[in-house]
Write a structure and sequence with these properties.
Radius of gyration: 14 Å
Structural class: alpha+beta
Largest sheet: 5 strands, antiparallel
Order of helices and strands: EHHEEHEE
Strand order of the largest sheet: 1-2-3-5-4
Helix content: 25-40%
Length: 129
């Protein structure tokens, strides 16, 4: 399943809506919605993305089933996403820590052959493990 979203102000909400349409009432839906919202928001804020492309595919890794959610942006910023330690008064800066916690550290970043940035997360098929 792939969907390209291009209205920047609505992208996190559209990503969550697409996941609900793709998955229905799946046990992992709530966690995937949170992961998608964080990754899409990061692409918009830190990646200077005018668009994102989101995909969700089932994968098997070491005999376990996962949902692999990936968010692709144009890669124009060149920044590599990484968690940071926000200050105690900051309201931002915790998104990748949330993704890391939900996935047990199963997330990462790649660059496509055309220079697009891919940030992916693999969530246990039934939700948090």
């Amino acid at each position: 399943m792939i969907r390209e979203l291009d209205d920047c102000s609505l992208l996190p909400a559209l990503a969550r809506r697409e996941l609900r349409a793709w998955m229905g009432e799946h046990p992992a839906l709530e966690d995937l919605e949170l992961i998608a919202s964080e990754l899409v928001t990061n692409a918009l804020v830190h990646g200077c993305a005018p668009w994102v492309r989101m995909s969700l595919v089932p994968i098997v890794e070491d005999g376990r089933r996962y949902w692999r959610l990936a968010v692709v942006d144009p890669g124009v910023s060149g920044a590599v996403p990484s968690p940071r330690i926000p200050g105690p008064d900051e309201t931002c800066g915790r998104g990748l820590w949330v993704v890391d916690d939900l996935t047990g550290g199963r997330w990462g970043t790649d660059v496509t052959q055309v220079g697009e940035r891919v940030v992916w997360a693999a969530l246990a098929a039934g939700g948090r493990s």
